[in-house]
Amino acid sequence: MQVKNQWTNEIIGEFKITSGSDLSGANLSGADLRGTCLDDDLRKMQRQFYKSCPPQKSGGHIVYRTLESQHVGDTKYTPGRTYIAPVLSADIVTACHPGIYATSLEWMRDNYPGEQLVTCYVRAGDFFITAKGAIRCKRLRVLGEV
Predict the structure, then answer these.
(1) Which of the pair, 76 or 16, is modelled with greater confidence?
(2) Is this structure's pTM higher than 0.85?
(3) Among 7, 26, 77, 133, which residue has the fewest nearby CB atoms (within 10 Å)?
(4) Are the C-beta atoms of 138 and 104 separated by less than 8 Å?
């Protein structure tokens, strides 16, 4: 991957992303980080998510979603069951990719007014925060109806 200066478009670095990469000490000043996991807008959404859905003592989060799938499939999320996404996208800058979506109660009420909602639990490490401010989960336990 090439890193370019956002003002001059000059290539200021090149690196290969591998699992476990250590970027400590890397100088990214002048790098265009828009659309990456270091994008300021994404970090603001991450802070908002953690403020709206703070970690529980267990480390997981209480989140909300619609009772029925809105876009893909016809899943009805039943209290007491755990759902596992067959595929989970780790792409954090794309708003809609494979996974089970959930977020704060306020976000759900603003974006799905009138829809029946369920309260869920997601473990730390089982989700990615997305570009739209919701989370995309690998595994989600439905606790009850709102």
Answers:
(1) 76
(2) no
(3) 7
(4) no
